[in-house]
Design a protein that fits this description.
The chain is built from seven helices and two strands, in the order βαααααααβ. The protein is mainly alpha-helical and 185 residues long. A two-stranded antiparallel sheet has the order 1-2. The radius of gyration is 23 Å and the shape is elongated. It starts with a strand and ends in a 15-residue tail after the last strand.
Length: 185
């Protein structure tokens, strides 16, 4: 049996990038941008809420009006993806930040589940953007804006899926200490 030792976060550069992705999603995407679509069900007729701030609401609506008609239409399937983001993915990001920073291997399976679910949801959304009723007039830009939710989950799948112990490595065999016995001077 191989003894494992933890790999310090300082030696896991890819994990720094994944942690940054989780932080951005937690602080900005889930509870600043996506929550607007729950709080304001009809972006054409609404009063500004306390949260998110007015400039964020205006920016989201500007983006939707110019590039992303799906965001403004908010059909049921799209609202479901937003609810999933706020109820499931947001808490996952919080837990993942801790687990990746501390090298907790129990996050491996939840990370794989998250990555598969995220890719599936984004592919469905981008399919609507490309071929559906709410086609984007700027499809390339919308794909580019959503690419990180395909790329990072793919990275997570490879990072967590290829190794049973993603935060560990085989321990180096320790050399016996010299005690002075048998040493002649």
């Amino acid at each position: 049996m191989t003894t494992l030792e933890p790999v310090p976060l300082s030696q896991r550069r890819l994990d720094w990038l994944l942690i940054a992705f989780f932080v951005i999603n937690l602080l900005f995407v889930s509870y600043l941008i996506d929550i607007e679509q729950i709080i304001i069900p009809d972006p054409w007729h609404f009063s500004y809420p306390l949260w998110p701030p007015r400039p964020v609401v205006d920016l989201i609506h500007w983006w939707g009006q110019h590039f992303d008609p799906l965001l403004m239409a908010r059909p049921v399937f799209f609202k479901v993806t937003i609810w999933l983001d706020d109820l499931l993915y947001g808490p996952f990001y919080l837990v993942a930040i801790y687990a990746y920073a501390k090298g907790r291997e129990w996050i491996r399976l939840p990370s794989i589940i998250y990555a598969v679910a995220m890719i599936e949801g984004v592919v469905i959304i981008l399919s609507e953007e490309a071929f559906g009723v709410y086609r984007s007039p700027q499809l390339g830009l919308v794909i580019a804006a959503n690419a990180s939710w395909i790329i990072f989950p793919l990275v997570i799948l490879f990072r967590m899926g290829l190794r049973e112990h993603p935060f560990s490595r085989p321990a180096a065999l320790s050399k016996p200490a010299l005690t002075g016995e048998g040493v002649r001077g």
